[in-house]
UniProtKB/TrEMBL annotation:
Gene Ontology molecular function: any one: proton-transporting ATPase activity, rotational mechanism
Protein name: V-type proton ATPase subunit F
GO cellular component: proton-transporting V-type ATPase, V1 domain
Coiled coil: none
Alphabetical list of Pfam families matching this protein: ATP-synt_F
Similarity comment: Belongs to the V-ATPase F subunit family.
Matching SUPFAM superfamilies: AtpF-like
Top-rank taxon: Eukaryota
Entries under PANTHER family matching the protein: V-TYPE PROTON ATPASE SUBUNIT F, VACUOLAR ATP SYNTHASE SUBUNIT F
UniProtKB keywords: Hydrogen ion transport, Ion transport, Transport
Species whose genome carries this gene: Vannella robusta
């Protein structure tokens, strides 16, 4: 009989504000090892190039990420990178934050679905 080799579980990466990071880490989504973590805490002083660099790391360089959760107001800072992203894994999930409401017209996935179905948000 052949032994089945289990694939390692994929992690959820997070790029978010303090409340989002805290909530998801308390929910068990955090992972820190000797090399890296699976989250980026974005504050007002966090430079956009750092956000862009971590987005690139989570979506292109690491193979252990299955989902990237990002606050929509932070995603707006790197919207061009999201618009250019075309892979299925990791899947990108834009979520609202306590201080910034969700806008489906700016959501990366909603725009792709609208384009495919010929819908618009007007």
């Amino acid at each position: 009989a052949r032994a089945l080799k289990a694939k390692p579980a994929l992690l959820t990466a997070i790029i978010g504000d303090e409340d989002t990071i805290t909530g998801l880490l308390l929910g068990g989504a955090g992972n820190v090892d000797g090399k890296h973590s699976n989250f980026l805490l974005v504050r007002n002083e966090t430079p956009v190039p750092e956000i862009r660099e971590r987005f690139e790391e989570f979506t292109s360089k690491r193979t252990d990420i299955g989902i990237l959760v990002i606050n929509q107001h932070i995603a707006n800072m790197i919207r061009g990178d999201l618009d250019d992203y075309n892979k299925m894994i990791p899947t990108i999930l834009e979520i609202p934050s306590k201080d910034h409401p969700y806008n489906p017209a700016k959501d990366f996935i909603m725009n792709k679905v609208a384009k495919i179905t010929g819908q618009s948000f007007d």
